[in-house]
């Protein structure tokens, strides 16, 4: 998987094609376009039909670009005479700078102009998620170790966004996604272990739930969720003693409002740190407990409200975490794209403050390969 990501980030994997994406056919009717674009299309068709414009797209941050394949596929699916449009673009996974042109489209305005806002939206969401994930993955490597980041964003947004968000997370460097939908654009399967619901079905018995899981899915790595009873060290040791080398990892997902029972039994430890949720002191104590009983092979995964900053703090403190599960913080849309018409009929023409910014990094898109 690591090599696959590196290839993608280096632009060595072919672009995704029209067949990859499941577009809503109402795009063709203008259903998702701002009405003023639809009105402009009509006016241009009736008064200025003989035109060739260049539209360029940019944003204002340092970011990991994503969404170009999807945007190009959109244009080639819903643009009029897309074979006559000339598109130059950077690739998904490219690092981009503020105000750098990432894509240009040249052709008659009426053949693609009404798609401008949709293209902006595709690039904004995909790039935001890819950049968020990239920054989290980078934070998880602060200590110099490559620690997997598992994308767990299924519960933090509408399910229809999962495929695109999963792909964006992949571009950003996440090595595993929580659902099959998040993996569908490159033919993979979702990755997951056990939720709290499974342990609840076994009345809080983590060992019994783990036995059932192992029996039902014998080919899976056994990763036990150990915070159900808010006693992660006790339950981790119970599972480790039962399964020995078969136990690959334990996952902590303690609520930020709870103090684990380990601290309630050892009140003398408290007073110098925040004991709530998954905190460094709890992870250190869990690692010591596992190691003391000879379970050095059991890895520790943490989840629940992790952000780039929180992960970096864990890594700087050298907290013995082996993998991070991250969800909601990766879905913040904080990068916006702008599409501007900057050339018409071979002459520079743009609104005040905007101008054509040629970018030698752009590559011409071969229509026959999309």
Describe the structure in your own words.
With 370 residues, the protein is α/β, with parallel strands linked by helices. It has a six-stranded antiparallel beta sheet with strand order 13-12-1-5-3-14. Strand 12 and strand 13 form a beta hairpin. 40% of the residues are buried. The N terminus is likely disordered.
Topology as H/E string?
HHEEHEEEHEHEHHEHEHHEHEEEE
Q: Helical percent range? A: 25-40%
Derived structural class: alpha/beta
The largest pleated sheet is described as:
6 strands, antiparallel
On the 0-100 scale, what is the average pLDDT?
91
Share of residues in strands: 5-15%
Low-pLDDT ranges:
1-13
Question: Could you tell me the number of beta strands?
Answer: 14
The gyration radius over C-alpha positions equals: 25 Å
Task: Based on Cα principal axes, name the global outline.
Answer: elongated
List keywords for this structure.
370 residues, alpha/beta, 6-stranded antiparallel sheet, 6-stranded parallel sheet, 11 helices, 14 strands, elongated, disordered N terminus
Helix-strand blueprint:
Elements: H1 2-9, H2 35-47, E1 53-58, E2 63-64, H3 68-78, E3 86-89, E4 95-96, E5 103-107, H4 116-140, E6 149-151, H5 162-172, E7 176-177, H6 196-201, H7 206-216, E8 222-225, H8 232-243, E9 247-252, H9 261-265, H10 280-292, E10 299-303, H11 308-316, E11 323-326, E12 338-344, E13 347-348, E14 363-364
Parallel strand pairs: 6-7, 6-11, 8-9, 9-10, 10-11
Antiparallel strand pairs: 1-5, 1-12, 2-4, 3-5, 3-14, 12-13
Helix pairs in contact: 3-4, 4-5, 4-11, 8-10
């Amino acid at each position: 998987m690591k090599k696959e990501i590196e290839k993608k980030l280096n632009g060595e994997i072919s672009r995704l094609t029209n067949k990859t994406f499941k577009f809503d056919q109402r795009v063709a009717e203008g259903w998702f376009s701002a009405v003023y674009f639809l009105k402009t299309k009509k006016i241009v068709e009736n008064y200025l039909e003989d035109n060739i414009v260049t539209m360029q797209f940019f944003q204002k941050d340092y970011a990991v670009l994503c969404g170009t394949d999807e945007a190009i596929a959109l244009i080639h699916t819903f643009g009029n005479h897309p074979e006559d449009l000339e598109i130059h673009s950077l690739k998904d996974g490219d690092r981009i700078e503020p105000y750098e042109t990432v894509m240009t489209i040249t052709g008659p305005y009426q053949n693609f102009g009404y798609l401008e806002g949709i293209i902006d939206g595709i690039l904004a969401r995909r790039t935001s998620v890819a950049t968020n994930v990239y920054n989290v993955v980078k934070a998880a490597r602060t200590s110099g170790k490559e620690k997997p980041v598992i994308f767990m964003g299924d519960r933090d947004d509408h399910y229809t966004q999962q495929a695109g968000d999963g792909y964006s997370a992949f571009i950003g460097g996440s090595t595993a996604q929580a659902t099959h939908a998040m993996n569908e654009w490159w033919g993979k399967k979702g990755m997951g272990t056990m939720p709290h619901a499974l342990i609840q079905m076994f009345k809080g018995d983590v060992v019994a739930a783990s036995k059932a899981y192992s029996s039902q899915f014998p080919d899976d790595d056994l990763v036990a969720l150990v915070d159900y009873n808010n006693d992660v060290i006790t339950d981790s040791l119970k599972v480790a003693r039962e399964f020995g080398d078969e136990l690959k990892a334990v996952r902590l997902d303690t609520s930020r409002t709870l103090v684990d029972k380990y601290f309630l039994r050892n009140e003398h430890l408290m007073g110098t740190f925040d004991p709530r949720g998954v905190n460094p002191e709890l992870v250190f104590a869990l690692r010591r407990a596992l190691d003391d009983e000879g379970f050095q092979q059991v890895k520790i995964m943490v989840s629940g409200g992790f952000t780039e900053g929180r992960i970096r703090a864990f890594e700087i403190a050298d907290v013995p975490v082996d993998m991070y599960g991250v969800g909601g913080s990766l879905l913040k849309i904080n990068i916006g794209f702008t599409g501007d018409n900057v050339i018409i009929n071979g002459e520079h023409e743009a609104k005040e403050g905007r101008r054509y910014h040629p970018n030698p990094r752009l590559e011409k898109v071969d229509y026959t390969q999309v």
